[in-house]
Structures are given as structure tokens and as C-alpha cells.
Amino acid sequence: MRILITGGAGFLGSHLCDRLITDGHEVVCLDNLFTGRKENITHLLQHPRFEFVRHDVVDPFKFEVDQIYNLACPASPPHYQYNPIKTTKTSVMGAINCLGLAKRVKARVFQASTSEVYGDPAMHPQREEYWGHVNPIGRRSCYDEGKRCAETLFFDYHRENKVDIRVIRIFNTYGPRMLAHDGRVVSNFIVQALKGEDLTIYGDGTQTRSFCFVDDLIEGFVRFMNQTEIVGPMNCGNPGEFTMLQLAELTLKLVGGKGKIVFKPLPSDDPKQRQPDISLARRVIKWEPQVPLEEGLGRTIAYFRKQIS
Ligand code: NAD
Ligand code: UDP
After folding, report:
1. Which one of the listed residues 69, 80, 143, 157 is annotated catalytic?
2. Mind giving me the DSSP string for the chain?
3. Could you give the CA distance from residue 98 to residue 300 in angstroms, rounded to a whole number?
4. Rounded to the nearest whole angstrom, what is the distance from the C-alpha of residue 13 to the centroid of ligand 1?
């Protein structure tokens, strides 16, 4: 197949490019390189089935493709809050442009949605039926509401225009190719520990997240995209739930070094807990994460050790 990946030079997008090239497809990677990097795809640039296009998803685009994966959007809070209006435009206009293209060329189109659509959840663990608890006017809203509106657009194009959609809700995912200055917790802790700096916990560290290793997530993407039983939304993530304090302690144990834990103010609207209910993914795509946190962190630490040295 000929497959378009928006945000293909980013952390998740570049791993998806690798996977789809390995599976024998032609890949068009579209990215404006806001948080993505050419280094993530350098090894693919000379490949005969790979093409990189520098373009912004806010502006319309045309490609003759069979499938579209829409991943373009900064995912780390400091990056999506850097220009919040642009973040909302990226999610909303990006979705409209992908859906318009999918309608025209009859491509199947995948939306990388997020656990952030559940906000600071009152239901735990989060199931797909839960409508969420999201502040519409806070610092995280540009991302959360942008992604919620993108889901709305996907389902309206599906109902009104019979566009063949797949909507997946991704929970915190980590691994090689995250940016060292990304601002998300796993890369922050690892880079701080490797540099012998103190690990910065925001708040008291009792808030929880569930961390999925990137290889597991990409397997979930491909299985979900290529089944025809459901269009979603479907949760995809690792149900193992950890406090930020546990994550900091585990990182220090694995990296060694002399950093210690320090506490910083908690950003506003920071969700207190997050854990996916993945019963739907287990049933429909027979999917379950395979990489435990300690092993995935070890592989991510090895990547950053090389980057930093
Ligand atoms: P990332 O920041 O590494 O990747 C996003 C990519 O999109 C980057 O390459 C960036 O340059 C590109 N991009 C941003 N704005 C663009 C625009 N206007 N036009 C074209 N390209 C643009 O983040 P990631 O972790 O790889 O996330 C990929 C997708 O998955 C995002 O949509 C994100 O919301 C979603 N997601 C990720 C996670 C996670 O834990 N990694 C969790 C939930 C959802
Ligand atoms: N966090 C932290 N220290 C950091 C970066 C983040 O304690 O250096 C916390 C953050 O406040 C949040 C959790 O870790 O409670 C996960 O943050 P991240 O930005 O990775 O993802 P999100 O909040 O979007 O799930």
C-alpha cells in the first residue's frame, strides 16, 4: 500500500515509518519539523519506498494514498503550550485536511487521539465509554480540546460521508527518539539522571501514569488500522500504573549516579491518575503490551546514553 504519515519525523511517527517500510509499503512522511527531526528518519531518506515532504498539516495537501495515519501534533506539554493557538489549529485543521483527502481518494484514515480526552478522570481505569472531565479554558485545553474536536470531526465524516476512520486513544508512551529536551517525564528523568542532575518531580509525586513502550504501541497501531470490526475509539496503552515517585526511584536505580529527587510546583490541571482499560484492544486486536517498564526504561536509557555522550 501507499501510506501517508503526518508527523512522521516525530517520536512515534518515525517508528511507524520504520515499521511500515519493513512491512513492504510505500511511505510518504509529511512533517513541518516543529518537534520532529530529520535525524529520526535519516536512515530512510535514501530508501526507494520512502519520501519526506516538509509541510504543515494546517495547509491542505494532496497525495494518492491507500491509508493515512494522522500523528501531526506536538505531544509534550511544554511544546504544545508554546503556541497554544497553533496547537488547536494543528489538531483541528490537520484533521479536516486528512479527512478531506481520505474522502477524495477513498483512503482509510487513522487519528492519533489521546488519553487527554478523559482530562483529570473521575472514572478509573478509563474505559472508552467515559466522556471525560476536561477543563475547556486551561493551559492543557489547546491540546485536550483540539484532540476532542478532531475526534468529533472523524466521527462526523464517518457518519456523513462514510469515510473509513480508525480512532485510537494513546496513553503515555516512551522510548528511543524522544527529544532530550522534550519535557515529558520519562525523558526528563532519564536525561537528568544521566547528567547527574536532580530529578524534578512536579507536585508530591503521588500522581500516576501508565507507561507503554513504543514498540508495543506501534504493533497496536498496525493491528487496529488493519482490522474491520470497529472504528474506535480504542484505548492503547500499558495498564501498569506507577506514581511519579516510583518512576523517579526506578530511573535512579537503573541509571545510578548521584542525582537525588527534588520537588517542583505542580502545573495546573495536571491529571491525578491515569490508567487505560484495554479490554477492547485485548478482544478486538488480541493486543497486550509485552515490554515491562523496567526493560523499556533500560532500552530508553541506552538510547539517551549514546545521545548525551
Ligand atoms: P512528537 O512531538 O515527537 O511528534 C509530533 C510530530 O508532528 C513531530 O514530528 C512534529 O514536527 C509534527 N508536527 C507538529 N505540528 C505539525 C504541523 N502543524 N504540521 C506538520 N507536522 C507537525 O510527539 P509523539 O509523541 O510522536 O506524538 C505523535 C502523536 O501521537 C501526536 O498526535 C500526539 O498527540 C499523539 N499522542 C502521543 C502520546 C505519547 O505518549 N507519545 C500520547 C497520546 C497521544
Ligand atoms: N512530571 C514530573 N517531572 C517532570 C515532568 C513531568 O513530575 O520533569 C509529571 C507531570 O506533572 C505529570 C506526569 O509527570 O504529572 C506526566 O507528565 P508528562 O508531561 O510526561 O505527560 P502528561 O502529563 O501529558 O501525561
Report:
1. 143
2. -EEEEETTTSHHHHHHHHHHHHTT-EEEEEE--SS--GGGTGGGTT-TTEEEEE--TTS------SEEEE--S--SHHHHHHSHHHHHHHHHHHHHHHHHHHHHHT-EEEEEEEGGGGBS-SSSSBPTT---B--TTSTTHHHHHHHHHHHHHHHHHHHHH---EEEEEE--EE-TT--TT--SHHHHHHHHHHTTPPEEEETTS--EEE-EEHHHHHHHHHHHHT--S----EEES---EEEHHHHHHHHHHHH-SS--EEEEPPPTT--S---B--HHHHHHS-----S-HHHHHHHHHHHHHHHH-
3. 32
4. 7
Give residue-wise pLDDT tens across range 30-76.
Answer: 999 999 999 999 999 999 999 999 999 999 999 999 999 999 999 99
C-alpha cell at 95: 484533521
- Domains recognised in the chain with CATH numbers: 2-175+212-236 (3.40.50.720)
CA separation for the pair 13, 69 (Å, rounded): 9
Question: For 199-241, what is each residue's pLDDT tens digit?
Answer: 999 999 999 999 999 999 999 999 999 999 999 999 999 999 9
pLDDT, tens only, 156-182 = 999 999 999 999 999 999 999 999 999
| Interval between CA 100 and ligand 2 midpoint (Å) | 34
Query: For a pocket test of ligand 2, which of 185, 187, 197, 208 has the largest count of ligand atoms closer than 8 A to its C-beta?
Result: 185
